[in-house]
Description:
The structure holds 3 protein chains of 3 kinds. Chain A has 19 helices and 26 strands. Chain A is of the alpha+beta class. In chain A, the strands form 6 sheets. A 7-stranded mixed β-sheet of chain A has the order 3-5-1-12-9-10-11, with helices on both faces. Chain A has a 5-stranded mixed β-sheet with strand order 7-15-14-13-8. In chain A, strands 16-24-25-26 form a 4-stranded mixed β-sheet, with helices on both faces. The N and C termini of chain A lie far apart (68 Å). By secondary structure, chain B is α+β, with helices and mostly antiparallel strands. Chain B has 2 domains: 3-79, Roll (Ubiquitin-like (UB roll)); 88-158, [2Fe-2S]-binding domain (DNA polymerase, domain 1, Orthogonal Bundle), CATH 1.10.150.120. In chain B, strands 2-1-5-3-4 form a 5-stranded mixed β-sheet, with helices on both faces. In chain B, helix 2 (88-95) crosses helix 5. The relative contact order of chain B is 0.15. Chain C is of the alpha+beta class. Chain C has one domain (2-75): Ubiquitin-like (UB roll) (Roll), CATH 3.10.20.30. Chain C contains 3 helices and 5 strands; from the N terminus they run βαβααβββ. Chain C has a 5-stranded mixed β-sheet. The radius of gyration of chain C is 11 Å and the shape is globular. Chains A and B meet through helix 1 and helix 17 of A and helix 1, helix 2, helix 3, helix 4 and helix 5 of B. Bound molecules: FE2/S2 (inorganic) cluster (2 copies). One FE2/S2 (inorganic) cluster (FES) binds at residues 99-104, 136-139 of chain B.
Amino acid sequence: MPKDEYQSRDFRIVGTRPVRPDGIDKVTGKARYGADMTAPGMLWGAILRSPHAHARIKSIDTSAAEAMKGVKAVITRADFTYQPESASLADVLDNCMAGEKARYDGHAVAAVAATSKSIARAALKAIKVDYGVLPHVTDVDEAMKPDAPVIEAGRVQENVPEGYSENVTGRSQYGHGDPEAGFEKADLVIERHFTTAATHQGYIEPNACLAQLGADGQGEIWVCTQGHYMVRNTCAGVLGLDAGMLRVTASEIGGGFGGKTHVWMEPTALVLSRKAGKPVKLVLSRDEVFRATGPTASSSIDVKIGMKKDGSITGATATYRLQAGAYPGSIAFLSAMCGFAPYDLKHVRTEGYEVMTNRPKAAAYRAPGAPMAAYPVESVIDELCQKLDLDPLETRLKNAAREGTKASYGPTYPAIGLEATLKAAQSHPHWIAPLGENQGRGVACGFWFNFGGDTCVSLMVNPDGTVSLSEGNPDIGGSRASMSMMAAEELGVDLDQVRTVIADTASLGQNEVTDGSRVTFAVGLATIKAARHAIQIMKERAAMTWGIDPEAVDWRDGAAHPAGPNAGKFPPMTIKEIAAIASNTGGPIAGHHEVTAEGAGVSFATHMVDTETDPETGQVKVLRYTVFQDAGKAVHPDYVEGQFQGGAAQGIGWAINEEYIYGEDGRLQNPGFLDYRIPVASDLPMIEPVILEIPNPGHPYGVRGVGETSIVPPLAAIANAVSRSSNVRLTSLPMSPPKVLAAMKGT
Amino acid sequence: MSQIHVITTINGDETEFLCEAQETLLDVLRDHLDLTGSKEGCGTGDCGACSVIVDGRLVCACLMLAGEAEGRSVETIEGMADGDDLHPLQQKFLEMAALQCGVCTPGILVATKNLLERNPNPTEEEVRYWLAGNLCRCTGYDKIIRAVMDTAADMRGAA
Amino acid sequence: MVTVRLWGSLGDLAGKTEVEIPATTLRELLQGLEETYPALKPQLERGVSVSIDGKIYNDSWSTPIREDSEVVLLNRLVGG
Lengths: 747, 159, 80
Ligand code: FES
Ligand code: FES
């Protein structure tokens, strides 16, 4: 039997591009997403939200709303009678329904359930909230000042130095060596300040759920989420319910990118349902999605790098200040870990500050913390290359982390793929293609960790020999196809013999959310092991039938074979034949595997982009884009390419268009797709994906997570292209036309 | 609340419904007729997830009042395949992996079907501009554009 | 004894960036850290990830650690 570790092998199915099993439902409109489900007697929920960035809630009068025909329940924080035990669950509760004060524009303050959408909306208007408006702060640098309005006192961790506002809740610092001594050795040192705007994950499907909760504490939720186990556990923790009494089913999910790894309104739907005694459907509007579900952090950053004339980096420091929104955050430490991770540095120090502001609670967004970490670092390296007349790819190669390098965040790297991506970039025709007037070419590298985590998979061999696979991770981008492929590969059966479903929380053990690019890695690992478990049972059944020792049975091509001439002369028994007599040989056959997957393996990418800047308007157009990334082993190359392309497109949006714009009044000015402009088809060129396969030693097929790294390099790659084409260094995202124009005019 | 009585044709079938005056065509399709293939990504005409064809014209169902459907012919994603036979665009989207989460897919398929009916030989740029009102956050559009161009070529070859 | 490297701000609390802990598993390591360096307790309670010979572990208590293993403490990782 093959080992857990990677073994080189020829694949039959893995690495091919079959049509995904859930595809037909999705192209015909049959697939059911979060808002597509109904229940008998269902009510419509709606949420009233604060128009103020920061305000004490003096009183809420719901009587007029309650008296309206068709209104079945009105709730406020008073209806959440349970006080969660942990601070983080208490934060989730307070974010779902404001307690003493509203902490940001869009913070939920009350909710209703009614017999129609229009009645629910009318009822919201009838609720009277008396607010005492407080001073607010939405900018990260302002929020750090000692005299800034404090969002919540008493949340400062022991690692924060004196002299800051209590909004600064956490600090982390990484690195080694003596950067100051390193700078002494440099021929050129560049220090710059950068800012990035908050951007939203921008999934096209707004958050939605259908919930039912009885007085007996038993409940059901249908929800679009990246983790239905997380929804179950969080709702139970927030409302004081037993997790086992809640059954959560994941709908098809219309994008998440980290934004659906949190709970935003499911407890609200449950409490409405309990009060009304009916199922309640709660669907957020796009406006609510922008105002109240997690964007990523905005940031303020200082980076300083010293370089010798030969391109070697002698010292580097970075300070990352990330605004986490209205609750204590935890993203800046990831920036501090990721910023210099691609490089082999003797002297490096990074710092990250977590800062509260009057904005919605920041959420994970694809490789959280890493894009804003790489952007300033890769920008300054590019500027050093320009000023020292060095080749940007050669210089990165010269400093590249490789096997044995001590990473800037501490550990020594095993085999990694950064050099391979840089070399692939060097030898790609894109690198030497001619550029026209006002055009520039930028490159940048990116790094991300990838994760494992709690994972359960069950694999049932049905009486007819077909296979049903249950896994517990919502399928965001084709993972059911990948799981079926890995199971079929391992079992030696045709792909169409395996069907993968996403089980509800009552049907399979705990699963970590679909995040950290974990699914193909961790669920794939568990799928392979579950298949091996089933194979072991089938070998035993064949051995029993033949009257030989199970050790003397081999499994290949979907059948049990006697291991050698000594084992006896029997014709092979196929999976179908073994399944047909399962009742006679010991009962139904099922394999399963439960694991906390560890050792996911880090991932690197290099991106290359050509842009053209319009000297009249400052508008930046992306002309050509190439992604070079290590996938370990691409199980379904189409979906690996799709992850590369999708991440790059989101990074392009972050670089050029997307930003949360707050007014003086602390209100979000652009909560809609018209003014918060994500890239549309006519904004983008084709995005060429180059998949490199440097096997992950910790996975039997060599698989690495691929979902997140692709959003890390684009910010700097584009900034470098634009800076080179316009001959000015841009240090603030997004590079919107007015900013670019002002920079070019030197104003 | 008094309701409006509407008679219309949806995917070739005569359909009657009652709706409130302020309800959109998308509300009625999704909430009253259980045609949930059309999605609501924004409700303001900015995402194209609700794209349907009304009397041959591509519209955002979230911007059209349901009452306005009286006497018209509405085509939705649910009417795109002919029984088990997928439309060539649907088939090609599957083969070329032009969808990830798939929530934008119904709108994009309806919109591109309408494009190819008007212009069987679009350039890449024409496809990109035609789809500029249909947001996709997962794919970066690359595989979508390729699938549309490829389908157009196939359909021209077959015609 | 296992040598454990702490990240900078954690090292500030422990008074040094490298500490020695008698441990043969991840669990013993975490318990040993908390007992020897009580100042680290709040962070250990919030959670850490541990890199052992270049592989990152979050939870598995029984993960073996050798005397010569490279052990590096990290903030607990989260993804999107
Ligand atoms: S829902 Fe109609 S355009 Fe977005
Ligand atoms: S495939 Fe997810 S939005 Fe297009």
